[in-house]
Amino acid sequence: TSKIGSPSVTTTQINPDGSITELPDPTDASSTPYLDIFLYASSLILLHFTLTLLVHHQYATDPPALVPVFLASTVFSSAPWLILLLVAALHPRASHPLMQLVFAGMAIVAGAWLVKASNDEPYMAVMKKAPALGTLWVWGVVELRWEIAAACLAVTGAWGWWKGYGVW
User: Fold this and answer.
1) CA 121/CA 127 separation, integer angstroms
2) Cα angle 58, 63, 67; round to 5
3) pLDDT tens digits for 20-49?
4) Which residues of the chain have pLDDT under 70?
């Protein structure tokens, strides 16, 4: 039987001899998926780096040399360490209803803030804010169930339409 309400989570295993083995609880803090957290955080850090380069390209500014940009925006800044810390703390518990609410709030706020910043603020402010906000927005949407993620994107789009922001 499953200790967790979700039918997709298996907490028991039937062995070839017919005996049943109890598997560790996936929500147990002692069974933290370190590789999963590392791969998830490194993907978000590379997304942050990519958004940094795209913002430079959007405003037709020459990004600094590739290696210094990578080091400045991903290795030596506080963003990757913060991303790693947040992913380690929140990702293993992402399916919990309270965490879904936290990620929904983060997706709506980060998305709305990104839309507002890219429409109202000068280009230097956008170049500073957009990579971090975009990374938070993508992370929030990815962690959500698809129904909630679609609703959050709809709320952000409706907010942008209500404020008069256009796509073009």
Assistant:
1) 10
2) 135
3) 887 766 555 555 677 777 787 788 878 877
4) 1-10, 24-32, 62-67, 69-81, 84-85, 88, 91, 167-168
The Cα 128–Cα 146 span in angstroms is 29
Containing 36, the helix (H) or strand (E) segment is helix 34-58
What pLDDT is recorded for position 168? Answer: 62
Backbone angles phi, psi at 12, to 5 degrees: -130, 160
What is the structure's pLDDT at 146? 92
Cα separation, 112 vs 155, whole angstroms: 9
Buried/exposed 108-143: b ≥16 CB within 10 Å, e otherwise: bbbbbbbbbbbeeeeeeebbebbbbbbbbbbbbbeb
What single-letter DSSP state applies at residue 5?
Answer: S
**Which helix or strand (DSSP H or E) is residue 94 part of?**
none
Cα–Cα distance measured from residue 158 to residue 144, given in angstroms and rounded to the nearest whole number: 19
Distinct helix (H) and strand (E) counts, the chain:
6, 2
Residue 109, pLDDT score: 93
Residues 6+ apart with CB under 8 A from 126: 55, 59, 117, 118
- Amino acid at residue number 17: D
